[in-house]
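Following the same procedure, backbone shapes were mapped to integers, as reproduced here:
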Amino acid sequence: MDDIIIARAIHILSVLFWIGGVAFVTLVVMPSIRGSTAPDDRLAAFHRIEGRFAPQARVWVLLAGASGFWMIHRAQMWDRFAYPQFWWMHAMIGLWAIFFAMLFLVEPLFLHRRMQNSSDPAKDFRRMERLHRILLLIAVVTVLGAVAGSHALF
């Protein structure tokens, strides 16, 4: 069972850095760019900063996924997905899948190219800000649900 304790520690640390990074970008970086940069230059300013965070986020998302799946497998928790009180496990996997798809598929294969050729970077920045806020809200609900649920609140 020591491997589950190690997996849980890795899982919590990776979620801390992943979602903490999303919160920092959403609540600090983007508003700072919005307040200090001309609308047409905001997207470029964001990409300069995001270029340093994205590789880290990929590592944290991979570690969160691997450790989470390991704990489910090793502790034989697959049956929990059949019960509504474990909704937070579905939420964790759903949130992870969204970020995995964004970081490994959508951004590198489509989004960066589209934004480089954008005719309206100010509109793209606003859209990206809105998406970050929505994802952060979903992440906060998921983390709160996971902590409460894993301590038998539900």
Remarks:
- The mean pLDDT is 94.
- The CA atoms of residues 90 and 134 lie 18 Å apart.
- The longest helix spans residues 2-36.
